[in-house]
Amino acid sequence: MIQTELKTIKQFQKRKIQVEKELDDLKEDLRNTERKHQETLRRLEGKFFEEKVQHICINKYCVY
Question: ∠ CA(33), CA(20), CA(15), 5° rounding?
């Protein structure tokens, strides 16, 4: 009986290590995705601002 419990504990410990590694991998993936999202958001906001300025200048006859 003790051998069975010890085996169960060892299996649990192995599975715990696997799950913790999976969690660490997912956290890293999430950080990378968030960083890429922020970069994309900044780029799109910049494009939007440039287009808005161009649109305003076209309507008010701006010349640069």
Answer: 135
